[in-house]
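Researcher: Let's do a round of design. I'm pasting the structure tokens now; please hold your answer until I've finished.
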């Protein structure tokens, strides 16, 4: 019988975790923590499996008060942990160039400079405190739609990734996860956008052995390089959800699952 340690930085998750703790007494624990610092907190524990389900939850997206979505008017917050620097703090205090860079880097938004300029102009009139204020600034900068999607989508994604340091968190966790994975343990990661998937893909590549010809002539440097590899890649290509799952749960459409297995003895 397995035991689970469930980790989430969002304190709102605790009440749902508590239900599972009740349903599976002695087999489940909840740790309210960000991923990056959780490895240190787990001490010498070793796990047969680590599953990372990245990004935001539907519960967060659909809650007006959390400020993740431009679909509902709410405070411009976006903090998964309810603590630290909010999206409004950033939008009302950062410089124009910094705002443009964040929107471009994390949202791949080609109108990033135009949007940043408009944000600076608007905040001189009054602070930008709500999701609807920000969405209307974006709509007026680059039109309300980009093809089928709302033109605020990319900027909201960028701010969420930035405010929660989602990429830094993922990198730090991956760099240390070797310390909590048991021999033969599996590492399974579900990501939801290309910036995350690139980090996971590069991590797997960097830690999987390269194929070296098994001959005495194979370069010593190649064999040496392989000596510190520890992860066998189980998914050559990432797994994606079938159409039936996407129809049932459209938010799954961009999910990519990659898996690896620790082969250290
Ligand atoms: C896609 S949801 C997971 C949903 C959950 N697996 C379920 O099926 O209900 C992602 C969750 O990860 C949490 N999260 C995202 N980044 C995190 C981080 N760096 N540290 C801790 N939790 C994080 C979010 O708060 C969110 O609840």
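Researcher: That's everything. Go ahead.
Model: Designed sequence:
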């Amino acid at each position: 019988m397995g035991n689970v340690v469930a980790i989430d930085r969002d304190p709102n998750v605790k009440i749902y975790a508590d239900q599972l703790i009740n349903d599976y007494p002695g087999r489940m624990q909840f740790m309210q923590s960000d991923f990056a610092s959780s490895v240190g907190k787990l001490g010498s524990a070793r796990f047969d499996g680590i599953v990372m389900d990245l990004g935001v939850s539907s519960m967060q997206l659909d809650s007006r008060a959390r400020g993740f979505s431009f679909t509902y008017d709410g405070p411009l917050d976006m903090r998964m942990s309810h603590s630290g620097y909010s999206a409004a703090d950033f939008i009302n205090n950062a410089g124009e160039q910094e705002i443009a860079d964040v929107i471009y880097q994390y949202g791949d938004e080609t109108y990033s400079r135009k949007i940043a300029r408009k944000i600076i102009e608007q905040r001189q009139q009054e602070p930008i405190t709500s999701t609807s204020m920000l969405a209307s600034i974006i709509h007026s900068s680059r039109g309300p739609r980009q093809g089928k999607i709302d033109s605020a989508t990319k900027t909201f994604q960028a701010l969420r990734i930035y405010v929660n340091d989602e990429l830094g968190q993922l990198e730090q966790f991956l760099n240390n996860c070797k310390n909590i994975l048991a021999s033969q343990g599996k590492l399974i990661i579900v990501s939801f956008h290309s910036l995350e998937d690139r980090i996971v893909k590069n991590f797997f590549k960097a830690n999987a052995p390269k194929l070296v010809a098994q001959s005495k002539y194979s370069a010593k440097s190649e064999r040496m390089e392989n000596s510190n590899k520890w992860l066998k890649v189980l998914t050559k290509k990432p797994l994606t959800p079938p159409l039936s799952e996407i129809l049932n749960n459209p938010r799954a459409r961009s999910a990519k699952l990659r898996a690896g297995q620790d082969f250290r003895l």
